[in-house]
Amino acid sequence: MLTQFTGYAVDCTVEGEFDLTADRLRDQLNDLEQVVLLHATLTRLVDGSQLCVPRLVLERDELCAVEASPAARGLEGRRLHTVRHRRRVRMGPYSVLGHLHERPGVQPLGSMRLVRPFVAFTDARIAFQRGGSMEVRDIETLLVNGRQIAWLGEATGGPEDPIADQVPLITLVDAI
Questions:
Q1: Rg (Cα) of the chain, in Å, rounded?
Q2: Is the separation of the CB atoms in 154 and 172 below 8 Å?
Q3: Distance (Å, rounded) from C-alpha 149 to C-alpha 44?
């Protein structure tokens, strides 16, 4: 089934159509070495210029993060019980604030780098510079490539805390 794909690479954002054959996008991304997109549009972060190509092949680890649509989250009955941890991460030019999910008793990201690279952040906000302007996107589920994480830290305040919704909180990870 072709599904809309939005990814975040080190130097551009990538949109296109992806052939989703697994129940969950996360499982398929973790199983693949390469991601093939059809009708792809790459938008450079440095200046916002775009390039459209009919077929694009990306190495999985070129992606810092990928948006997961509700349809690509898989069957609810197959989801594991997890504990939410509000965290901030920095990957390349992107800062993310959201809920990282991990099994009870396991430290956030404790097993991820050893097993499978993509982990889910829910109620996520991703911030980045494109063409000299700050872009902020709220995403229900963002799949983050743990191999690209340069920094991980706790987020202060809950989602109702007005400070948690401020762009400076997200971009301050560079200063830590």
A1: 16
A2: no
A3: 20
pTM of the model: 0.81
**DSSP code of residue 27:** H
Cα separation of 120 and 84, whole Å?
A: 10
Q: pLDDT per residue over 46-103, tens digit each?
A: 999 999 999 999 999 999 999 997 654 555 665 566 788 888 888 889 989 999 877 6
Q: What six digits make up the tokens of 103?
A: 């099994």
**Beta carbons of 94 and 126 less than 8 angstroms apart:** yes
In the numeric block, which tokens belong to residue 9? 């690479």
DSSP H/E element including 153: strand 151-154
Question: What's the pLDDT score for residue 42?
Answer: 98
CB count in 10 Å sphere of residue 152: 18
Q: Rounded to whole angstroms, how far apart are CA atoms 62 and 8? A: 9
147 and 61 Cβ atoms separated by less than 8 Å? yes
- Per-residue tokens: 102: 């991990």
- Give pLDDT, residue 46: 96
